[in-house]
Write a structure and sequence with these properties.
Layout (H helix, E strand, L loop, with lengths): L3 H7 L3 H28 L3 H16 L3 E7 L6 E7 L3 H7 L1 E2 L4 H6 L5 E4 L9 H6 L3 E9 L2 E9 L8 H39 L4 E13 L2 E6 L3 H5 L16 H17 L1 E10 L4 E13 L5 E10 L1 H66 L4 H18 L1 H6 L8 H11 L4 H8 L3 H14 L9 H6 L3
Antiparallel strand pairs: 1-2, 1-6, 2-3, 4-5, 5-6, 7-8, 7-11, 9-10, 10-11
Helix pairs in contact: 2-3, 2-7, 3-7, 10-11, 13-15, 14-15
Length: 471
């Protein structure tokens, strides 16, 4: 191994050593001066980092190294530029995890100078094979925060001379501020590129900026506007502001003119309007929004705005409104039909009641009196039975009892209703069987079913009395 100080000063007389030292310092100053000029002339971050790394290697006499920067998202330390290192070695040292021991040392913000056998961080087998002797890590600062580091090393010398350390640290201090500037510029450039892409590649909207100008249309001059404005509004000359709104529908024109005049006072414009597209030969809808930007003195400098094609949305809204109107119309018609049906049903019910009253009246006045006369005449047993059947049937017609029992809530069959009516009138099982021409067992079964359906089965309730409660 070779000691750098001994190589430069160890074998020379004091006078020559002094001259040599002065020459070295002059050389270092030249390198720093050239670096300052070069950094001032570059706008590219990678170029700036390469200049800083090259100057650090020249001024220190080291033969390899790299510059690392912290990633804002992952907080890992990533190598951005490098020189003099093998490809296999680079694969192992290109990125360090944020919790790695050497990263924690860098974050302390102090320069690190050491030999490989004095490193506090254990070397991997790959790092040992690289054969690095002297090593230095110099933190880079963005204001008070560590933003990265310059790492330099040598395959030959076993240390960096004290005289070179000051110069290298000066470069690191200079590089930190320059890197911060170039990173900010890069971020601004990327932001501008995104904004430019946003404006140039727009399809259903157009972004624009206007300036206040006496020579411009309506006192406004177009600074820039997205090319999509031609497709959205059909204008021939996008740079001529007064052509933008020539095709406003007559229904909207007065409102838009008033809103535009008001915008000079409020510095805001937000209107939806209908236009006649001269190219597409159809009506389109647009939503124009703009806001005035003033200077510190309150004077309008610019007007930034956006024009959005909302035709599809308006067509959907109109279709929805049409559907709602159609639905409302159908609903009204259904209500009218429903009213008419209710009137018809009411009339039908009234006619039904009238018919029932007429039938009941005729039966009571014209039929039952003759049956009563027949019963008083000399009749044999068979004739009496038949008269009872006729009388029972007539009473079923005129009695509200039958109507009540025929309700679906009870679920009585027509035969059960007739049997129930006879029981109500005091007829026994034998009489019911004779009148209805049924067997005694059948009548008993009907009696049981009637009690069950009227929910009085197994209850101490007289069936005749209960049936009379329905009259």
């Amino acid at each position: 191994m070779v000691n750098q100080d001994k190589r430069q000063l160890g074998t020379e007389r004091p006078s020559k050593q002094k001259d040599k030292k002065a020459s070295m310092e002059m050389h270092q100053m030249d390198i720093q001066r050239v670096l300052s000029v070069s950094l001032a002339a570059t706008d590219n971050l990678i170029d700036g980092l390469n200049l800083c790394l090259e100057a650090s290697l020249q001024i220190s006499g080291m033969d390899c190294g790299g510059i690392y920067l912290f990633d804002d998202a992952s907080e890992n330390l990533n190598m951005v530029v490098h020189k003099g290192l093998s490809e296999d070695f680079l694969k192992n040292v290109s990125t360090y995890d944020k919790d790695a021991k050497n990263v924690l040392l860098i974050q302390k913000g102090k320069p690190l100078y050491t030999l490989k056998h004095k490193l506090s961080v254990p070397l991997s087998l790959m790092e040992q094979r690289e054969g690095l002797q002297a090593f230095a890590s110099l933190p880079l600062f963005d204001k008070s925060n560590v933003s990265g580091c310059i790492n330099i090393a040598s395959h030959v010398f076993d240390e960096i001379s004290p005289s070179s350390r000051i110069a290298v640290e000066t470069i690191a201090a200079q590089a930190g501020s320059v890197i911060a500037r170039l990173q900010a510029k890069k971020a601004l450039q990327e932001s501008e590129e995104h904004l430019s892409s946003l404006m140039l590649n727009a399809e259903h909207y157009a972004v624009y900026r206007l300036s206040i100008s006496d020579s411009g249309s309506h006192g406004l001059k177009v600074i820039f506007v997205s090319p999509s404005i031609t497709n959205i509004m059909g204008v021939d000359n996008p740079n001529k502001f007064d052509t933008w709104f020539e095709n406003i529908h007559a229904d909207d024109r007065e409102r838009i003119v008033t809103a535009n005049l008001r915008a000079f006072e409020t510095l805001e414009f937000n209107e939806i309007m209908k236009i006649k597209h001269p190219i597409k030969k159809e009506h389109r809808w647009i939503h124009a929004i703009s806001k005035g930007i003033t200077s510190q003195y309150g004077e309008i400098q610019y007007v930034n705005g956006i024009i959005i094609d909302i035709t599809e949305r308006k067509l959907v809204e109109e279709a929805l409104i049409a559907k709602e109107e159609e639905l409302e119309s159908k609903t009204n018609k259904l209500e009218e039909i429903n009213i008419a049906l209710n009137v018809l049903l009411k009339k039908r019910e009234e006619d039904k009641i009238l018919l029932q009253e007429q039938v009941l009246s005729n039966v009571k006045k014209l039929s039952i009196p003759y049956v009563e006369k027949l019963k008083k005449s000399n009749l044999n047993e068979t004739q009496i039975t038949l008269i009872d059947v006729i009388e029972s049937s007539l009473h079923e017609i005129v009695s509200p009892f039958s109507l009540k029992l025929s309700s679906e809530s009870f679920g009585l069959t027509p035969t059960e209703i007739k049997v129930a009516d006879l029981i109500r009138r005091g007829k026994g099982t034998k009489e019911v069987a004779t009148i209805r021409n049924l067997s005694h067992k059948t009548v008993e079964r009907h009696r049981e079913n009637i009690r069950n359906k009227l929910d009085i089965k197994n209850k101490k309730i007289n069936l005749q009395t209960h049936l009379n409660s329905f009259t």
